[in-house]
Amino acid sequence: MTRYALIYGGLAGLIVILTIVAGTAMADADTNLAGAEWMGYLVMLVALSLVFVGIKRYRDQQREGYIGFWAAAGMGASIAIVAGVIYVFVWEIYLYTSDYQFMEQYAASVIAESEADGMTGTELEELKLEMDKMSERYASPLFRLPMTFLEIFPVGLLISLISAAFLRRIRPPRLYED
């Protein structure tokens, strides 16, 4: 089980994070990072389809084609955990190599988008204060690491449950013992 979680979780995590890091690294000052979140979740959905593949391969190769719902969900959750850990690890490397500029760029993008949408006055000032607080919290690894993990893990867990529902196959009872 561990082997399948490492292989499929590692592949899913690497596909997601390398795509997101490449997109973030290629973004310039005018890029709307806040608006690109949907693209990140779309990449997660596609890459985490490896959860389905991993459960199916595990069921067919290790369990003679049979697996219960909870065993399949556990396999999928294991794959999602590995993908999440890879995602956090590579994201931390990216932040370190980019001098932790991401949150500053993200906050500027959110504020610029709000101004473009017509936000002014106290509402805009409150948003700026909120972004400042978010930047301060994001500087702490105790906040940033779990927050980064929670960007991807719930998506993987949801895919695990859906995959388990589709892939469960109960072994028929044996009528005669050998």
What can you tell me about this protein's structure?
The protein is an all-alpha fold and 178 residues long. It has seven helices and no strands. α1 runs antiparallel to α3, α4 (69-97) packs antiparallel against α7 and α5 packs antiparallel against α6. The chain is elongated. The two termini are 28 Å apart. The model has no long low-confidence stretch (mean pLDDT 89).
What's this entry about, in short?
The protein has 178 residues and is an all-alpha fold. It is built from seven helices and no strands. It has helices at 2-26, 37-47, 49-62, 69-97, 102-116, 121-138, 141-167.
Oligomer: single chain
Q: How far is it from the N-terminal to the C-terminal residue, by CA?
A: 28 Å
- As a percent range, the share of strand residues is under 5%
Please give the radius of gyration in angstroms: 21 Å
Arithmetic mean pLDDT = 89
Number of helices: 7
How many strand segments? Answer: 0
Runs with pLDDT <50, length 5+? Answer: none
Shape: elongated
Largest sheet: none
Estimate the helix proportion, in percent. over 70%
Order of helices and strands: HHHHHHH
**Given the helix and strand composition, which structural class is it?**
mainly alpha
Features:
single chain, mainly alpha
Topology overview:
Elements: H1 2-26, H2 37-47, H3 49-62, H4 69-97, H5 102-116, H6 121-138, H7 141-167
